[in-house]
Design brief:
297 residues; mainly alpha; Helix Hairpins; 2 domains; 68% helix; disordered C terminus; Ion channel; transmembrane helix; membrane; transmembrane
Length: 297
């Protein structure tokens, strides 16, 4: 191969490697996210903060689609660049298929292989190329199943977060202004421990499914940023009670809230010396304030 062919090969291999690294870090690496996926999600998030109305709420789903499209695009273009130096000598063309050696032809071969369609009109002849084509077909099938799994894992995590917000709202409506202090201490302690467990689960979801942070909630009732302050209030009430059992439950909930605040501070850039400050920033960024008024930033 001459210098130009070597350049296309190196560039194609680099694009394929970039795709594989991003997919691995996003879907397989615990508590991680790929650089491309993270940048795309954050980019759509920043744009959504400037939008008003329902447009801001579809930014995260569109960002996930953009991430998947980027992975597929990198794979298709990367393998096309690997095939380009070997057109047309490295392939066998079916009857009536014109012999072309341009990038469009290489991209066609790459997309047909990546989608595992395999029309058979153009087939690799060189043994090494045949291996590369087979690897791309396997990667295409793996990318399809991985992205479907990613979507199926993301929405249950979102539902757990919404369920926790609804649980806090129901508690607030049922308990009234007195909160846990108006209830039987044993029963209240059990409820707070359950909320602490749900809070810990949501925190783990944010670590494992980084993209769920960027989903906005249309209704404040299902928004954790809008209701997390009430969980802090419950923890403080419980710690002021005279019941050791309720005090322990309050400490559990307080620890769970501190864990969530630490993730928001460390992974998503929320500033604040205390957990309350971090949660105020969390509410502001998701346009849910305690007064129910959206921010104007």
């Amino acid at each position: 191969m001459d210098f130009e062919d070597t350049l296309w090969t190196v560039l194609g291999a680099g694009l394929v490697l970039l795709m594989l690294v991003d997919v691995f870090r996003t879907l397989l690496y615990p508590h991680g996210s790929g650089p491309l996926g993270r940048a795309i999600m954050r980019g759509f998030w920043l744009v959504s903060r400037k939008l008003r109305g329902r447009g801001s709420f579809i930014a995260a789903p569109l960002a996930m689609a953009a991430v998947i499209g980027t992975w597929a695009g990198l794979a298709a273009i990367g393998w096309a660049l690997l095939y380009l130096p070997h057109l047309t000598d490295g392939f066998v063309y079916g009857a009536g298929v014109p012999l072309r050696a341009d990038f469009a032809e290489a991209l066609y071969i790459s997309m047909v292989t990546l989608s595992t369609v395999g029309f058979g009109d153009i087939v690799a002849a060189d043994p090494l190329l045949r291996l590369v084509v087979a690897l791309q077909a396997v990667a295409g099938f793996g990318l399809l199943t991985a992205t479907v799994t990613w979507i199926l894992q993301t929405f249950p995590a979102l539902n757990r977060r919404r369920a926790l917000a609804h649980q806090l709202n129901l508690f607030k409506e049922a308990a009234g202004p007195a909160g846990v202090l108006a209830m039987d201490s044993g029963h209240a302690a059990g409820l707070l421990e359950a909320i602490a467990g749900s809070m810990a689960t949501v925190t783990i979801d944010l670590l494992a499914f980084h993209e769920t942070y960027y989903f906005r909630e249309i209704e404040q009732r299902g928004s954790l940023p809008a209701t997390v302050a009430y969980a802090q209030e419950l923890a403080s009430q419980a710690q002021r009670s005279k019941s050791p059992e309720l005090q322990f439950a309050g400490r559990m909930l307080h620890a769970a809230l501190d864990g969530l605040a630490e993730v928001l501070r460390g992974k998503f850039g929320h500033s604040g010396a205390t957990s309350s400050d971090v949660f105020d920033s969390y509410e502001l960024h998701h346009r849910h304030l305690r007064g129910g008024k959206p921010d104007t930033n």
